[in-house]
Design brief:
Beta Polymerase, domain 2; elongated; binds adenosine-5'-diphosphate; 2 domains; Rossmann fold
Length: 397
Amino acid sequence: MLKVGLTGGIGSGKSTVARRLAELGACVVDSDVLAREVAAPGGDGLARVRRRFGDGVITADGSLDRPALASAVFGDDAARADLEGILHPLIAERTAQVVAAAPPDAIVVHDVPLLVEKHMGPGYHLVVVVDAPAAVRLERLVGERGMGEADARARMEHQANDDTRRAAADVLLPNGGSREELVAAVHELWHERLRPFEENVRLGRPFRRPDTPVLVDYDPGWPHAARRIVDRLGAALGDRAPEIEHVGSTAVPGMPGKDVIDVQIGVSRLADADDPDFMSTMADLGFPRIDDYRMDHPTEDLPDPSLWVKRFHASCDPGRVVHVHVRELGSAGWQYALLFRDFLRADPEAAAEYVDVKDRLRRESSSSADYAEAKAPWFGEIWPRIQAWAQRSGWHD
Ligand code: ADP
């Protein structure tokens, strides 16, 4: 099962996207519909709301008087917290029931207006954000939905700003243009990304890009992408992953590199990574293990291979290559990944040199494995400089 979170500012076109995804075969769970269901007449939710807020929030026919309830909690944080304390667990329970009832090969799309504001992103394999300029959204809300302009503006102001929402997006669907363009983008998203991603997760098959190392310019989106992955892994693994870090070239601001997000999970003991629960959590999350890679390259001063063992997982997402290295906290491999990253961040000249070396080797190598092998001598040469820097700067992990 693939779990996708769908959100967007009011008027962005989120509901239009949800409808289209449902037509394509997604199992769409609408959080607004579930919120209404749990407060429907006859239910425990409504009874508890009535007990807390009184008969004034119930209409003559016994249903919830939403405007009355809205004014009862307006500007009163304690009252709002009470309301959320009653309804949120019920909504979460209903959501879990609906998701559990979906077939194993389902692509479940959870349509949540306040997904970003409520920090729900880590709960999904992928977050899709529908994005349109504020002026266009306002025009649609007033023109097409007939909302009053002041009301539309007030609602927009209550939501996360566009930058925050974009930083939370694994997929950004721009909807500043025509409906046809939006529908085409949803179609492509479904066929090129969601369907193969779901199938890869179900089959425990990581996505592999054609095997030619390509360097691309630094992408300012990399740290955001890494943050989303780190948060997702952290939410799913909890105490089993005491530390999770973005490492590798994409973690060095300004430096070109392969478009691969490297993440390092620090486990207390490497055996924790071999635990069946750990492995199945990773696989369900879309990061199955690849047993071919179990070692880092030892440095000259620490040649003992046992200091450099690791486990390796890769992402099933055809839209984003992610390598997850699981290393024991404090091990040579763990420290090296952090030290090398921090050194390159601190020394732009060394970073430029590294890019030159990679660029030359890339042209000379035919596969990623060749290329990784060819990089080893440079790592040997730079090692004394890294150590000197670590001493000077008092570096520690
Ligand atoms: P949301 O669910 O994000 O609030 P909707 O999907 O309901 O937004 O879209 C808001 C309004 O704008 C709707 O009336 C919808 O039909 C319309 N709309 C959505 N996308 C476009 C578009 N590309 N061009 C014109 N109108 C659009």
